[in-house]
Design goal:
By secondary structure, this protein is of the alpha+beta class. It has two domains: 114 residues, Aminotransferase class 4, branched-chain amino acid transferase, N-terminal domain (D-amino Acid Aminotransferase, Chain A, domain 1); 162 residues, D-amino Acid Aminotransferase, Chain A, domain 2 (Alpha-Beta Barrel). The chain is built from eight helices and 16 strands. It is globular and about 55 Å long. Bound molecules: 3-[O-phosphonopyridoxyl]--amino-benzoic acid.
């Protein structure tokens, strides 16, 4: 791609090289803000309403007033895709507290900064989708829901980033994060599922996880396909002894996990239920969503 990306920034569409925010922006100074990672498939933005609802809910919970309506923010996302003539995209929508002074207090931040980037995505290598991937458990815990609720997709991702570094140090691409009680929560940028005796389990939101949009899509698709799905707490013992394990996320979609902390899951290959859900998800993602071009 030779032409420069077009970025939405505070009411304007500007070239990537001109898309700049202030060093006094509290998103940068304090991680004070919220974001979304969204996908478009085949000219349609996947579950855009859910992403817009989620960012509004996150903003509300941190007392950040998004300076536009849900309809207007939806149009920002669609128009950013149009400006870049994209059919398939990875979209990053970010709203920060805005430009203020050097104090923690947001009282001098008069206007939130809103930007949207629509680009292409680099997924995990195809080989990992075909063969499944090894993961490890990070020592870094997911933050406690009573402190900063992981349902808030905030610009503070440090604990997840530290867990991601642990994954890379172990030579793998993802890491399981436990909650403060040692219960399995999720991965650094993906939700986690296990399958045992044909039944599907995923941790409930209250253990302290992001209420993933791919997670919910997969739960719905699995139930429609006739599977029993339970949101239930489980431990690493249950993961190590599962028949199948897979991760879900906007970037990863659905991906099989074939070993965890060097324990082989099932027979060490992507399991049949994981493969079925991966196919159902691909079909669903290609065929539904909000049209970019009308
Ligand atoms: N858990 C966490 C902590 C996440 O950040 C998910 C689960 C999956 O949720 P969705 O709604 O996407 O199904 C996420 C996703 C990336 C990336 O590049 C992913 C996320 C955030 C930033 C980057 O993989 N979040």
């Amino acid at each position: 791609m030779s032409s420069e990306l077009i970025i939405y920034l505070d009411g304007e569409f500007v070239k990537k090289s001109e898309a700049k925010v202030s060093v006094f922006d509290h998103g940068l100074l304090y991680g004070d803000g919220v974001f979304e990672g969204i996908r478009a498939y085949n000219g349609k933005v996947f579950r855009l309403k859910e992403h817009i609802d989620r960012i509004f809910a996150a903003a509300k919970s941190i007392l950040l007033d998004i300076p536009m309506s849900k309809e207007e923010l939806t149009e920002v996302v669609l128009e950013t895709c149009r400006q870049n003539k994209l059919q398939d995209a990875y979209i990053r929508l970010v709203i920060t507290r805005g430009v203020g002074d050097l104090g923690l207090s947001p009282k001098n931040c008069l206007k939130p900064t809103v930007f949207c980037i629509a680009s292409t995505i680099s997924l995990y290598p195809q080989e990992l989708y075909d063969k499944g991937m090894p993961i490890v458990t990070a020592t870094q815990r997911r933050n406690k829901a009573t402190i900063v609720d992981p349902q808030i997709k905030s610009l503070n991702y440090l604990n997840n980033i530290l867990a991601k570094i642990e994954a890379h140090q172990a030579g793998v691409s993802e890491a399981i994060m436990l909650n403060h009680d040692g219960v399995v929560a999720e991965c650094t940028g993906d939700n986690i599922f296990i399958v045992k005796d044909g039944v599907i389990y995923t941790p409930p939101i209250y253990v302290g996880i992001l209420d993933g949009i791919t997670r919910l899509s997969v739960i719905e698709l699995a139930k429609e396909a006739g599977f029993e799905v339970y949101e239930k707490e489980f431990t690493l013992f249950n993961v190590y002894n599962a028949d199948e394990c897979f991760l879900t996320g906007t970037a990863a979609e659905v991906i099989a996990v074939t070993s965890v902390d060097q324990r082989i899951i099932g027979d060490g290959k992507p399991g049949p239920i994981t493969q079925q859900l991966l196919e159902l998800f691909h079909e669903h993602a290609q065929n539904q969503g909000m049209p970019i071009y009308r």
